[in-house]
Amino acid sequence: MALIVQKYGGTSVGTLERIAAVADEVRAVRELGDDVVVVVSAMSGETNRLLVMAKTLDRHPNPRELDVLLSTGEQVTIALLSICLESKGCPARSYTGGQVHIRTDNAYNKARILGIDHRRVEEDLAKGRVVVVAGFQGVDEHGNITTLGRGGSDTTAVALAAALSARECQIFTDVDGVYTADPRVVPEARRLDRVTYEEMLELASLGAKVLQIRAVEFARKYNVPLRVLSSFQPGKGTLIAEEAAMEQPLISGVTCNRDEAKLTVLGVPDRPGIAHRILGPVAKANIEVDMIVQNVGEDGTTDFTFTVNRSDYEAALEILKQVAGDLGAREVTGDRRIAKVSLVGVAMRSHAGIASRMFEALATEGINIRMISTSEIKISVVVDEKYAELGVRSLHTEFGLGQNG
Amino acid sequence: MALIVQKYGGTSVGTLERIAAVADEVRAVRELGDDVVVVVSAMSGETNRLLVMAKTLDRHPNPRELDVLLSTGEQVTIALLSICLESKGCPARSYTGGQVHIRTDNAYNKARILGIDHRRVEEDLAKGRVVVVAGFQGVDEHGNITTLGRGGSDTTAVALAAALSARECQIFTDVDGVYTADPRVVPEARRLDRVTYEEMLELASLGAKVLQIRAVEFARKYNVPLRVLSSFQPGKGTLIAEEAAMEQPLISGVTCNRDEAKLTVLGVPDRPGIAHRILGPVAKANIEVDMIVQNVGEDGTTDFTFTVNRSDYEAALEILKQVAGDLGAREVTGDRRIAKVSLVGVAMRSHAGIASRMFEALATEGINIRMISTSEIKISVVVDEKYAELGVRSLHTEFGLGQNG
Fold it and tell me: For the residues B189-205, what does the mean pLDDT come to?
């Protein structure tokens, strides 16, 4: 007998019918002999309904009170699911974040979990009850209600799984796993049975929006096996865990991100501290920078290129023009119509030649690479936006990721 | 500078506009220099919305989980009101029942308050904040969420006023005070400036449904001055407090109750224990009995009459037929089309002759009295339902209760 932590997102509990279906699913696992802790989000639409009320009263609602308001969304779901489980003869107890002392810092609206008092949950499990916990919420040291920010329910589930040494943390969502590429772009994309935490972090941050990055980081830190499953269709989903002893596939997936824009400062006098003098003012304006590339140019000057979120493009451009003048740089250019295509896989570490195979595949399709950035398990290239799908498909084929690959 | 506890019911906070109006009202009191603790109910309709969801999943929802669900209604209101107060420059903090440790027994859905930890509230008041507390809810000794049952928000407000030694507990509702009679029946009915707790208890239980009986009992026990006010129109409302030193009006009001039915067991052999043998089975069936009258009849028999809620009439009749047979009683009769008309007032205690004046006034109108019951501050008569309004009006006039009286 083991302990399973299951997390159901907003669409999985979006209606009373869906809640009843989740209750059946939980009861089925319970009847196989495993203990179950269930973490639920607010019913889909509910958080937005509450937010609209708050913003009608005040465009910038008091953060403490906003968390008191939003945390009711999950509280409604835990009660309804527990009522449903009880009615199906499956003993259940619901708990708010405060009731199981999910202790957080006091950063309202985006709090971080510091610890969980799991005694009460363990007592209930020992009595044969299913424990239903509200995701997304906690309390600070003074008992003030906090929320973890959007997607925080995943983090709640992982934190509970870690605290209770669960065998597995199952994240039920509206997709049935992690794919080698976006199936809408690459019809032959294949569901991955297993990926490592590192791969999942790269896949998530690059647009495969299945899991919150924070939850994956948390799972990696405490070595909690995570499984992404669909709550709408049966299947084994994708297991996210440490590297298996068996041989891993070379490459796990190809992702694409169209949310970024590229900015370049040309002809910057090449002196120490240039990067900081350029990016410092950008960071000060709360603009997050993703890829950064610096090339040595001619005549003791350098070209400095980085990407930002597309919505920050105009603001970043204004700042750069100011900075470029101060630095005596030649010119500032930028491009919004770019896409970042990335190849992700742990095996990249030990296999040379993958990068050149990737660049060759793109060249064969006539796709010009505008920027390159590499990490241990990822190679990203920036290309013109119009080549995004073509790039993804050509790489998917080149590396044999398809269902017939 | 004094402390005022204000309670706003569901219709008073039924929309975002109403919540904004309440915030203005609270801020106005605050600006006059008084400290304010506000207790709020769920927005009108919200508790029913939640209840319907629960009952869709299970006709008899688990009581513990139902309280987890229903308590979110008030939590939404405290957050919205606090957001609104903050946006108007009035510092505010919201608290759920659990957060200010409104400790109750563990009778889910109808819990009773055992104590309140008021330190946190006092700390906030000392910092100049308005404290907004969720009505209707608390926690048991294990931290389980409980609710006080319908109307429990009044009790929360009175309990807080008692714990904090507030100068006054103001109950804002949709009527502007307590009247000498139902203004829909008696157009010249007059708002009372002041009544005693005892009078209010009689008035409330007899159909002037302004305040919950439990809240009035609580206020009397801890000697908390209660004021009933309208949140929709200005006015001083009605103060409910201990008897003033000044002379009280003889009679405070006339009420009418149409919710009851009358049952009679005729010709019961008059032996000790008859009342218990008749009412015992009725009580066992969870049927509440209101008026009870027993007359000594002829030939060593007695007639036994009592009233029950009209919805319990059929069930009570069935039980009585069985009981009557066992007791050797002659006959069981009943009447559903009755009304109970009552005259309430503390001064009745020291003024003889009020009862006979009351009976005479009814006789003058040709109204036959079917049953009489008296207490220290109340005289109730049962009459045919068709005479209800006429009875109320004639007594209102007889005792000079009108605005020109």
Answer: 86
Whole-angstrom distance, CA of residue A243 vs CA of residue B299 = 98
3 state DSSP class of A383: strand
What is the C-alpha to C-alpha distance for residues B182 and B190, in angstroms, rounded to an integer?
Answer: 9
Residue A160's Cβ-count burial label (10 Å; 0-12, 13-18, 19+) is: buried
* Helix locations, A335-387, DSSP H: 354-364
Neighbours of A245 (CB within 10 A): 6
| Mean pLDDT to the nearest integer, A81-89 | 98
Task: Spell out the residues 6+ positions from residue A392 whose beta carbon is closer than 8 angstroms to its own.
Answer: A181, A182, A185, A186, A254, A255, A256, A341
CA pair distance B75, B96, nearest whole angstrom: 6
**Is residue A260 within a helix (H) or strand (E), and if so which, with residue range?**
strand A260-269
The closest of B404, B349, B405, B395 to B181, measured between CA atoms, is B395
Q: For B61, which of A66, A83, A143 is closest by C-beta distance?
A: A83
Q: Mind listing the pLDDT tens digit for each residue in A71-83?
A: 999 999 999 999 9
Residue B50 touches partner A, C-beta closer than 8 Å = yes
One CATH from 3.40.1390.10, 3.40.470.10, 3.40.30.10, 3.40.1160.10 for B3-174: 3.40.1160.10
Burial label, A172 (beta-carbon count in 10 A; 0-12, 13-18, 19+): buried
Query: Would an 8 Å CB–CB cutoff place A347 in contact with chain B?
Result: no
State the average pLDDT over residues B156-170.
Answer: 96
Are A358 and A404 contacting, i.e. CB atoms less than 8 angstroms apart? no
- Indicate whether B243 pLDDT > 80: no
Residues 56-85 of A with CB under 8 A from B: 56-58, 61-62, 64-66, 68-69, 71-72, 75-76, 78-80, 82-84
Q: Does the distance separating the beta carbons of A98 and B79 come in below 8 Å?
A: no
Q: Which residues contact B353 (CB under 8 A, 6 or more apart)?
A: none
| pLDDT 10s digits, A257-277 | 999 999 999 888 887 778 888
B76·A72 Cβ contact <8 A: yes
Strand B130-134 relative to strand B289-296: parallel, antiparallel, unpaired? unpaired
Class at the top of the CATH hierarchy for domain A3-173: alpha beta
pLDDT one-digit tens code per residue, A340-373: 999 998 767 666 678 888 989 999 999 988 888 8
Measuring CA to CA, which residue among B74, B68, B88, B107 is closest to residue B26?
Answer: B88
